[in-house]
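Here is my example:
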Amino acid sequence: MPAYGRILLKLSGEVLAGGAPFGIDAARVRELAGEVAAVAAAGVQIGVVVGGGNIFRGVAAAAQNMDRVTADHMGMLATVINSLALSDALEQLGQPTRVMSAIEMRQVAEPYIRRRAVRHLEKGRIAIFAAGTSNPYFSTDTGATLRALEIKADVMAKATRVDGVYDKDPLRFPDAVRYSEIGYSEVLNKGLGVMDATAIAMCRDNRLPIIVFNLNTTGNIMRVSMVEPVGTVIH
């Protein structure tokens, strides 16, 4: 039996690109959907937030001289595209989903309403939260934290390319040391950068634990839901 009844899974948009610099890799999306669907089948209620980096990266050069608010809105719309791609892959596996957007676009997604989102989760649907908070200057990490708190998730599971939180970038420094657990304030004070400071502070103030884990290891989403020792716990 899973130890967590409800989790918020935060995925970076880059995950959907597979090995490509940007875009959506259909095979990687199907593989990811299979893992998420397996966790849902085990009885875990799952909310998902997907970033938009894999799409926005393709237009990043053009956005350099843009107004920040305009660029942020473009990033939010990129998350909607990713959310629809993940939703379609899950539905093809027989897992019901609902894409809920903070920016109203009724033809493609439901408007985000907290009570409706909770009801979807209770009915066994995976709720995919798109378009961030609809406000500029907020990252998808902050948007994911807000949704996790609103749906009363037991934990925020942040999927990354590395297997936890390190004292320095393990992709650049071979001698980097991984923490098995660490406090919110220590993450902030050391500027470890695993999530933006606003998201970490929100989790700290509301006592929402964060598990940072490597998504590229098959089965890790299930291991997180079963509270197996994987990644780093921030609490």
About this structure: Residues 6-156+197-208 form a domain with the Carbamate kinase fold (CATH 3.40.1160.10).
